[in-house]
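Entry, Tuesday afternoon. Goal for today is a structural model of the target with pyridoxal-5'-phosphate bound, before we commit to ordering more compound. Inputs were pasted exactly as handed over by J.K., no edits. I checked the ligand SMILES twice against the vendor sheet because last time a stereocentre got dropped in transcription.
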Amino acid sequence: MNQDELNRWSKRAADWALAYHAGLRDRPVRAPLAPGAIAARLPPAPPETAEPMEAIFADFERIVPDGMTHWQHPRFFAYFPANAAPASMLAEQLANAIAAQAMLWQTAPAASEMEEVMVDWLRQAVGLPAGFTGTIHDSATTATLAAVLTMRERALGWLGLTAGLSGQPRLRLYASAETHSSVDKAARVAGIGQENLVKIPTGADHAMDPAALEAAVRADRAAGLLPAGVVLCAGGTSIGAFDRIGETIAIARAHGLYSHVDAAWAGSAMICPEFRALWAGAEDADSIVFNPHKWLGAQFDCSVQFLADPAPQVRTLGLRPEYLKTQGRDEIVNFNEWTLPLGRRFRALKLWFLMRAYGLEGLRTRLRNHVAWAREAAEALRRMPGVAIVTEPSLSLFTFALAAGDPATEALLARINDDGRIYLTQTRHRGRFVIRVQVGQFDCTRADVMTIPAVVAELIGAI
Ligand SMILES: *Cc1c(COP(=O)(O)O)cnc(C)c1O
């Protein structure tokens, strides 16, 4: 394939994309497939000789779309969204065309400088004070790992990097059980160990109990352990729990601990001033992660980490072997030193396109609608006999269950997802199997959201 053919097929792909998006409402949201169905349609070995693009494209159309769960479907209410606003898709196409590797300023000056400016645009958009800088990672998992490694090295006086962890004091991290499993993964792979991630109990408000945190830190110190950091939950994945951010960070600071706020989902909502009370005190954090690739509309992947001071993280992750030195340019930022991978994509472009094409006000309107419609759907479900709202809407996320018990709720969820008009997922809350509803797909309408109670009302009779 050459550039002329690329041009021709790109136009064909753009036409295909238009039809795909226009037809989404007619497709089942979740792929109605048995495991192995797609693999069985692919040849077991690669071709020795070139195949015509006509054949490749025809197979794509035949095999792939029906084998997908449609994340851009307006009735996708599962997990959290992975919104790709059309303007951000266009930016991704342009970044793909340039195909740069943005590891150093000099390997992609526009990407590096735009990343600095876009992180600052987002800082202003979510109402954080000047002084926070930051970077763009692939995922919140990576950002949280970067923060946990920084906690580790800061506590060890940067000895872990050189001497390794054996012989060092036993490190301790703190978080509530509402934080995402990426925190557990970070504790595991950072060599701190799952057993040293202390899960602080939560109160009736689902927030980490700050007094319990303080007691745990004191007890660990007294036992000769080394408290390193706290990960705070600002919009948990299960039910949307929020820690009391300001109060909890104050305790972390008083004990010299590094603080990282996981706002991977809810960070997008902070572009609306009326929601900022939920994370009040975030401005005192050392590190905050938020995924514009979830609710905001920047095509996956795009995870922003704000840093009050980048120095400890750069000291932890940055390495400058001779071949990566950029001679005589001390004023520039080489973002690979802020993140785990060396190679980096040009992710800032889609933020630039997104914020300009919709404006913050256009994005706010979408998020406000989602929150209002989620509440409306929850009220409609609450009025249904036999249905209980188990956790109240946190922004646009709530859970419900059937009064008849877990097996009935599980059966209802299976019927809903086999039906295909909407897609919901589950979680367990205080031992109970509950159905999770989140509203946030970029193009969903009120009618799409009100399909949720309509489908439940229709299918509940058969349980
Ligand atoms: C989605 C999510 C994550 C993980 O995000 P990735 O970018 O997929 O790694 C972490 N924390 C919370 C609260 C999330 O909602």
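The chain has 14 helices and eleven strands.
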